[in-house]
Amino acid sequence: MADNPIGLQIYNLAKRLFPICRSLTGDGVRESLKIMQQVMPNLNIFEVPTGSAAFDWTVPKEWQIRDAFIREVDGGNLLSFKENNLHVVGYSAPFDKVLSKEELIKMICTLPEKPSLIPYVTSYYEERSGFCMAYNDILKLDKPLYHAVIDSALKDGFLTYAELLIPGESEKEIFFSSNICHPSLANNELSGPTLTLALAKYVETLTNRRFSYRFVFIPETLGSLVYLSRNLEKMKRDIAAGFVVCCVGDEGGFSYLPSRSGCTLADRAAKNILSALDSYKSYSYLERGSDERQYCATGIDLPICSIMRSKYGEYPEYHTSADNMDFITPKALEESYKIYCSAIDALEHNATYKSTALGEPQLARRGLYPTLSYAGSAASVRDMMNLLAYADGLLDLIGISGIIKLPMNELIPLALKLEREGLLVRV
Amino acid sequence: MADNPIGLQIYNLAKRLFPICRSLTGDGVRESLKIMQQVMPNLNIFEVPTGSAAFDWTVPKEWQIRDAFIREVDGGNLLSFKENNLHVVGYSAPFDKVLSKEELIKMICTLPEKPSLIPYVTSYYEERSGFCMAYNDILKLDKPLYHAVIDSALKDGFLTYAELLIPGESEKEIFFSSNICHPSLANNELSGPTLTLALAKYVETLTNRRFSYRFVFIPETLGSLVYLSRNLEKMKRDIAAGFVVCCVGDEGGFSYLPSRSGCTLADRAAKNILSALDSYKSYSYLERGSDERQYCATGIDLPICSIMRSKYGEYPEYHTSADNMDFITPKALEESYKIYCSAIDALEHNATYKSTALGEPQLARRGLYPTLSYAGSAASVRDMMNLLAYADGLLDLIGISGIIKLPMNELIPLALKLEREGLLVRV
Amino acid sequence: MADNPIGLQIYNLAKRLFPICRSLTGDGVRESLKIMQQVMPNLNIFEVPTGSAAFDWTVPKEWQIRDAFIREVDGGNLLSFKENNLHVVGYSAPFDKVLSKEELIKMICTLPEKPSLIPYVTSYYEERSGFCMAYNDILKLDKPLYHAVIDSALKDGFLTYAELLIPGESEKEIFFSSNICHPSLANNELSGPTLTLALAKYVETLTNRRFSYRFVFIPETLGSLVYLSRNLEKMKRDIAAGFVVCCVGDEGGFSYLPSRSGCTLADRAAKNILSALDSYKSYSYLERGSDERQYCATGIDLPICSIMRSKYGEYPEYHTSADNMDFITPKALEESYKIYCSAIDALEHNATYKSTALGEPQLARRGLYPTLSYAGSAASVRDMMNLLAYADGLLDLIGISGIIKLPMNELIPLALKLEREGLLVRV
User: Fold this and answer.
1) How far is B123 from chain C (nearest CA, A)?
2) Over the stretch C67-125, which tens digit does the pLDDT of each residue have?
3) Global pTM?
4) Taking CB atoms and an 8 Å limit, are B359 and A285 in contact across chains?
5) What ipTM was predicted for this assembly?
6) Closest alpha carbon within chain B to A188
7) Which residue pairs from A7-10 have beta carbons closer than 8 angstroms and sit at least 24 positions apart in sequence?
8) Over the stretch B110-136, which tens digit does the pLDDT of each residue have?
9) Fewer beta carbons below 10 Å: N end or C end of chain A?
């Protein structure tokens, strides 16, 4: 079997989705979600009409983009949407003109400080037509006239998103949200929805799921606002913990971005799992930038945080053509997948236990304690004794894990063993 | 216009008051308050008779001092009250005797470790007659006999203090207290009452004052006890925040002395304003030494703290003849004035806001958000987004300022703008 | 008088008890407690029959040990219980066999990493017969056959413990627990019960005791479980603070092991007293190892912690023949005794006071404040002023001691003086 088999599956799905031009709305989103539906047939796709209200916002016109290019008036293409869909400013209005070089340059966004990279730019809420190019390439323009064409349309249509529910014993939910609105960008964002889909497959393998699991695939900001405006009451009632999954494919170290309060069950699970690593970077909510902006807004206040690798905005490839399929790896995706699976396991098995004995129980007669006592003989059962000492009916396992400094994946089997022995009961 | 125009006004008033011999009681206090009344005609002067009770204390006899000197029996003055009023121990009883050199020396306080400076000494609560001299000068005494005279009187009279109220929309008050009981000492204390008077003038310029402002000018310790004993009920009901203003004229760095609890509105405003400086020194309440001793005593518990420059007791010139008009500067007074004005502004505009939108509001359509989105484009509106994110109806602006690390003078205009846009409401 | 007179008394009692072979049960415990009864005739000895339940545990058969040896078949003793009772694994079943060298070695516990020391080993809860030897000595075995004898018995009998109550004004108790189940081991454990007995003598000298004092001498783990199972209701109602006294005889620095919560009155007293030392080591409850395991178990939750010198398990001599009478000293015992006496004094005099004056009281007229006021003149009364400032009817003296950084032994006399002056009242 290959190294990182699940990472490779995630990577290959991302590779298949990579060329599609997703945006806030449009056929690119639809096509992407349909490919994901092939992996998880229960994925439900929703269409929300232009003009629909979402709190303070309104769903705009749908954007369709067929082609775009800049061409020398008598020559070949200088730049083509079909080569790289980042070349068109997202939501560009239709355009077809012959322009002077100077006029053309005014329409083009570049990154002079990263001269070989094409920036990713959008203009959802003001009608514009624009191109994006590498700064080096703009320097090579030497003709007086160019023909610039954007073969796009902005008309009444729909905002498209998808949702997948995997029910468990309880209506209480673990919630995952990931974005599907970026064109050919790999870490931010295709690593997010593809890894989230793999998590859904993992959840399906869990028997006796305590929680229900909900996975939503939405365009950033407006998508989460649309979703929230349609589901807020149920979300506030049922979401026990949730995660915004993005930037999980590069080989940078792990990072954590808290919910606004920073101490929800999701935060506690995330910090518990990450603290078993050698290190991870902990951001402040002031450094937020994805859909936790909506999920954790005042009055919404959902228990949702993020576990990432290199955070959006913090790596040089972010929102450029360098955030491509070479920037993410099966190995990194597999590691991120495992971290999220650990968080799921921690949440599934987190429970508040109470020791049934007054004082320490007599473990030796149960074969759980060394019968020969000498200096250091109790070390082997120290973790078990610590679990019993803190199982006070108030602390949950995540809390005990932090106090006794034992990772959840080692603590959970101990708790289950002591529960079977009748020495711990759930409260 | 001169640099530091307000600092210069404060300095000049202090210079005019400097030669007057103030004490716990007496005409020096009366004369000083009358000069201050010329600046603020609404200043009310109160006279509290000898024998009046103030909690555990009693107003003592009033002290009048006309002159004092030490003179060689057949020669000129060695030392004269008229040259420097620090030469007489405060509250000295009348004295007129020819003394041997040894007898004289027993009456004289010096500072051997600061041999060129005259100490400031008082004996309010035990009747004494005494002189203060530079240690170097006592070494020069070479005659067998000296004539020592203190032309003073201790008789039934009054303790004098003054009060100024500038009403606002609310009966809730911001309270300022400063001492007027030290003779020719500049930083501790004339910088205090003169700067406080300038704050009163500043408050008069504020239109739509939310708070009322009260300024009291009292002798230290007994004055605050007298004032408290007459006004405690109202003070406990109405004082929202208060400051003991002293040691604000030297060029040392800023310092903060908390109230006993350390977390009142006054403390929060002081720490907020000071934390915008490069640095400031934070003392403990254990290092208190002025009227916060009374204002924050158990059972009184007012929300009162101090913002100072070099704190009393912490600078070598403290309570010596070197704490003179050269030790304080218009520049330092102006800086201190501005810090206190900032605290006033922070208190006036502090409010608890709630975001009116669920999720983030759509700012782009209000012209408040960049419409072209690229890596880093949201940085310019980050502070506004942070304010919206934390305006939860629980945190006040001072609290939000601390969390989002934005000084109140930048946060207040943002809050007012969003309030005008209907995106924030006061709760 | 000798240096360390009380330390010497403690040391001499430990020396007398040292040769006796104590264990979980048996005549060694009885004999030790009877010797201790000679010191404190009110010590009550209790016998709990084999088979008695103690929560999840059962009192096992009583162990009697008369002799044990290993001998060359035709030669002299290699090892004898009478030389050092550590040579026999505690609770060894009777044994009398001629064994091959190889068979014999399987019965012997050694410490290869400390080759000259005999380990201390027990097997209370599984029937075994075994010996303990220095590893160096096992290397010298060169005969093919040995005769190994353990002249012991395991039969129905009793678990023995003792208790001493010194009543005070209140039924509220300060509780001390120390172990009497180790054979010839000095720091862990004889320093514990012998010092505890000296504390009982100290408590007897206290007139007007506010608290009652209870001292229990029990075998570790099972003894505390037996004691708890018989007294839990009263203990939960009446114990105000308690200490597990062990490892108090060596010259290592002081250390503190908290109760599970870490903030009980016992913890506060212990930390207060220890913080007056230059330094002390603070352990976590995760490093517990003595009867706090039972006293602080969930559902029992007594306010009990430990003040020790070198903690069990943390010094190389622990549970070996090197933890002998040379390892503990009268000097160290006297120091530990004084620390515990200070904790007792702190608890006895701890009270919640309220200042009777509004504002600061006028101390000068009571002769409590310097009447000549100059820079620094109030320093001499700073502690008294701080006590008055924090006597708010909420903080107790231990709390105030921590805030104003004044040790309890200096704070208590100040509080009593101000109480006599009518300036403080107890609430």
Assistant:
1) 5
2) 999 999 888 888 999 999 999 999 999 999 999 999 999 999 999 999 999 999 999 99
3) 0.94
4) no
5) 0.94
6) B375
7) A7/A329, A7/A330, A7/A331, A7/A332, A7/A333, A7/A334, A7/A335, A7/A337, A8/A330, A8/A334, A9/A198, A10/A191, A10/A194, A10/A195, A10/A197, A10/A198, A10/A249, A10/A330, A10/A333, A10/A334, A10/A337
8) 999 999 999 999 999 999 999 999 999
9) N
